[in-house]
Specification:
This protein has 2 domains: about 140 residues, OB fold (Dihydrolipoamide Acetyltransferase, E2P) (Beta Barrel), CATH 2.40.50; about 110 residues, OB fold (Dihydrolipoamide Acetyltransferase, E2P), CATH 2.40.50. The strands form 4 sheets. Strands 9, 10, 11, 12, 13, 14, 17 and 18 form an 8-stranded mixed beta sheet that branches. A 5-stranded mixed β-barrel has the order 1-2-3-6-5. The chain is globular. α3 packs parallel to α4. With about 260 residues, it is an alpha+beta fold. The protein has 5 helices and 18 strands.
Amino acid sequence: MINRRAVLIGLCLPLMAASPFWEDGETGIVKEIIGGDSFTLENGLVVRLAQIEAPRLRDDVPISQKSRDFLANLIQGKKVRLKYGGLHRDKMGRALAQAYINDNIWVQGELLKSGMARVHTYIDNRSHIQDFWLAEREARRNGRGVWADPMFQARFATPEALSGSEGSFQLVEGKIENVIHTETLIKLCFGENEIQDVCAIIPKHSWNLWGDNNLDDFKGLQIRVRGRINGPQAARTSKKGRNLPAHGPSIWLDHPEQVEFLIN
């Protein structure tokens, strides 16, 4: 059975920001704000705030500049302490960190509560998810920041609602109508037709992360998933000669923290 009770209990707890549980990292003065979720310290270390995503800077997306300005007003010129709960560095050498001001103001939490970022975990950075969801939920319920912009609202799990969103990070909500097992994948389908309807796809290498949960129990549940949108594909042959069936829009789920159970 899917342990929804543990999830719902977690959502009722106060925001703790997980400070005692992170691994202490570097400290430094913030020299430059790169975007709404990244900055540079005086020692040259580039920091990418872990487990969140702010709107990418674009002239035609006003909230992206507001997000950058919010981060600048919060930390520019201040001393921050980095903390780690997963992978420390990405391929570009950036620190993937939680950030604190005076060891008690959680930067990610401030961005999420203000609606200047959304939760975005990765398989190698996904700890203490309840705190992130709680902070994000506060902003969503009050229509702050990105949650007042239709571009960033959670979308219905239908091909029509996801049209044009291929390659972008989205939150998608719907009811699981079917669970399909293959040799290498489990498909959580938001409809009965896996060739046309939206599916969330769990690869085989990630199955063990779901623990004792029976993924067939997703059927009939209302869930919210978040990740990059893959567009629909016609039937084709892979480079290795495998016949790949047609499918509708899909979202790759390689860790459980990409899923929230919605209360009916």
